[in-house]
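Write out a sequence, fold above all:
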Amino acid sequence: MVQEFRRIMLDEQELISALECYRRMTPHSIPEGIITQCTPIEEPEGIRVEVNIEVPGATALQRITHTLKEVAVLKPLIRFCLENNIMLPKDGLKSASVVGGFVCLCIALNLDFDVSEHVKPLRIDNVRFLSPGDILSKKASSE
């Protein structure tokens, strides 16, 4: 059987969009106001996200910080994927992690081993994405 492990990585703006979208669907999940910043934090017991929100007060703008733990982070990530037509396997084991400052939705399907022991975080600081021209020039030089 085919085994699959995927990471869907969201930057801060995508995470804010995911949280706002989820808040529209479940109004009491995140306090009302403008989400200005999200800080993902990886801890031994799981991921948490510190969400900074500006709430209009009676006389001035009030800034609050709302903390989301792993399951509360996972739900908006899944909703974000569904709304952006990113296919997710229904039976896949889903979890959240932080990789290089990105919040990741991790999906494991039909794995014969424990992912946490065998999969190392991606190193994305030195990644250079190839363009189609790079691939064609490498293919031509190897011939």
About this structure: The chain has one domain: 4-142. The first strand starts at residue 4 and ends at 10.
